[in-house]
Amino acid sequence: MSRANPLPTASAVARHVVLLALAAVVLLPFAWMISTSLKPQSEVFLSEIRWWPDRLHVVENYTAAFAKAPLLQFLLNGAIVTTSIFALQVLIALPAAYALAKLRFYGRDTVFALVLFCILIPAQAIAVPLFLLFHQFGILDTYAALVLPFIISVFGIFLMRQFFLSVPDDLVDAARMDGISEFGIVWRIMLPTAIPAITAFGIFSVVAHWNDYFWPLIVLNSESLFTPPLGVATFRNSEAGTDYGPLMAAATIIIAPLVIAFLFAQRRFIEGIAFTGLK
Amino acid sequence: MAQLAISNVRKSFDRTEVLRGVDIEIEHGEFISLVGPSGCGKSTLLRIVAGLESPTGGDIVIEERNVNDVRASRRDLAMVFQSYALYPHLSVFDNIAVPLRMRRLNAWQRLPGAAWIIPGTRGTQQQIRTEVERVADLLGLTDLLGRKPSQLSGGQRQRVAVGRAIVRRPKAFLLDEPLSNLDAKLRVHMRTEIAQLHRSLGATFIYVTHDQAEAMTMSDRIAVMMAGSIVQIGTPDEIYNRPQDIRVAEFIGSPKINILPGTTDADGRVRVLGLSIDQPVEAAPGTAVQVGIRPEAIRMATGAEPAWKGRVDHVENLGSEIFLHVAVGGIDGPILCRLESVEARTIGIGSTVALCPKTTAVNFFDAAGNRLAVRSMSYLQVANG
Fold first, then answer.
1. Hey, which residues 211-250 in chain B have their CB within 8 Å of chain A?
2. Prediction ipTM score
3. A103 neighbourhood in chain B, CB within 8 Å
């Protein structure tokens, strides 16, 4: 039947052409990165475009990537930093969001307005004062310096508060009648109800801090603490010339965990975006 | 001494006064309904009793102990909410077990695996399991214990909410419109179930509803609330037959009571639309009186007796009974009259009928809506004395 299975119309074709073109713009550098990671240095700068190298240099490039820098250490650092940030963000954002959404206290709206105002402050604007503060504390060049600035996520508080508003008040009251304390309500009732919202927030948080280059660059000196983006940058060598094969191999490796995680959590991720769009 | 006393409770949100001094005394084992139109403050009053809201003034006394400063969880009351408020991530079993676990197990004992480490935990858990299963059995939920609330129908969720309330045997149950999310048929069924549950538990029930049929069918006493005050408290019979206020008369009863304009004559008898009702009232001659007559207190006039004549506008046939809407000169709306279907079978729309009230079942109210006493009673008492 033509209704059930319509022929592609001109507009549908045009739509797909535009989407494919946009996808290509985003994906081409990515594909080029993978392609380059397979090539020997001699085939990297050719005048023609060659997607598949004549001489495959996979093993050489990827072993070089692991040999030239402690890539596994960088990946581990990335995992430690992003999970610590996310766990602490949830630990702080959930009670704050619960208070803003469900408790009645004097000045609540003002406090919420302040929270919203904080969304407007760019990280770069407070980088120098934070750097000086951490210098005073003596915690520069530590994991703490990487984690602490981000544990209060204003965006997280806002997102969770919006979600908690949709949780019926009766549920909170029922928990109070059953003898659950206010903090108990946050962890035993609100947290399980808010799993979709927390997942969405988690994806945003992990992606943002895994890929963060700016702040680690400022506070770190020791290579042993480098996060993956900083680690990749160590392959750039202004004196000996950059070795592009291993560099691209390293870039591929550090992006891989995010890509794999995304493929697993794809549905949740799209839900999360739809969710933040709705609220 | 009453088990639960509410005295002079007031509540304001910002500048709006929601409760204006409410007094109720509730006895042990009583089923009392708070009924009134939406926005009359009945739910707020229930939440104040529960401890979920604090009153602006007045006292809540449970078993002679003032609980104004006692937290909701320490008042030993259970509440069933309109939306059921089941924990969506817990199974039916866990939902019912939560109030017991929170009371009998400490924070460490509630951690997973505690039964292997902390002595006594396993025994308490076993005891909780037995009690949850007993309640599930009582409510017919045994087969559903493993399900999540999202897998249950409205009626089943309602039962789980009731189960969570009764499992810990509280001093009193507070029910906030528990049936309003169910369909009409199930609502009638659950009415019976809740009334039977009340009888078998013998516990105190405070039941908030805007549905006068629920209040009438289940309660020992009804408290009718209007605009933040209690207008009348009494048995369903008193509320229905001897409303103390015209608003009570209009709120209780379906279809609604007929309110007709009347005036007292020199003897205190009330003339309504040209008809004199043989019930002298306590009012000066010439006073304007509002006369309330329920549809079933109006009958067809026989022979040549004085009557209201009117044209039938509409006929509602309910099978066992028939309601006539009769347009009578002198008033805007129709007079509603309930007849047995046998006597009304021949009456069609457009026909003319003669109606008169059953004199003893008439309610009189003054212009402000307060009930006017009927004088004949005092005559009788004088004669007997």
1. none
2. 0.84
3. none
Residue A240 DSSP one-character state = T
Over the stretch A96-110, which tens digit does the pLDDT of each residue have? 999 999 998 999 999
- Per the omega criterion (within 30 degrees of 0), is the bond before B255 cis? yes
The pLDDT value recorded for residue B379 is 47
Give the residue on B whose Cα is nearest the Cα of A170. B85
Q: What are the DSSP calls for A199-230, one per residue?
A: HHHHHHHHHHHHS--HHHHHH---GGG--HHH
CB < 8 Å to A168, chain B: 83, 85
**Interface residue B110 vs chain A (CB under 8 A):** no
pLDDT at residue number A265? 74
- Nearest C-alpha of chain B: how many angstroms from A170? 6
Residue among B268, B250, B275, B270 nearest B329 (CA)? B275
Would you call B288 an interface residue with chain A, using a CB distance cutoff of 8 Å? Answer: no
**DSSP bridge pairs for B208:** B34, B176
What is the per-residue pLDDT for B8?
95
Q: Which residue of B lies nearest to A177 if distances are taken between CA atoms? A: B73
What chain A holds in terms of domains, given with CATH numbers, is: 66-274 (1.10.3720.10)
Chain B's closest residue to A173, CA to CA, is B52
Indicate the residue of A171, A179, A189 with minimum beta-carbon distance to B99. A179
Closest CA to A108 of A117, A99, A116: A99
Q: What is the pLDDT of residue A237?
A: 64
- How big is chain A by its Cα radius of gyration, in Å? 24
**Which pTM does this prediction carry?**
0.81
Distance in angstroms (rounded) separating the CA atoms of residues B174 and B102: 19
pLDDT along chain A (279 residues), means of 10: 61 92 92 89 81 84 84 92 96 96 93 92 90 94 94 93 92 93 93 87 89 91 89 71 81 87 74 51
**How many other CB atoms sit within 10 Å of the CB of residue B132?**
24
Distance from CA of A55 to the nearest CA of B (A): 56
Please say whether the beta carbons of A243 and A41 come within 8 A: yes
Whether B98 has its CB under 8 Å from any CB of chain A: the answer is yes
Confidence at residue B383, expressed as pLDDT on a 0 to 100 scale: 41
Residue pair B352/B309 in contact by the 8 Å Cβ criterion: yes
Quick one: pLDDT at residue A16?
93
Quick one: closest CA in A to B50, which residue?
A177
Contact B85 A174 (CB under 8 A): yes
- Which portions of chain B are predicted below pLDDT 50? 378-385
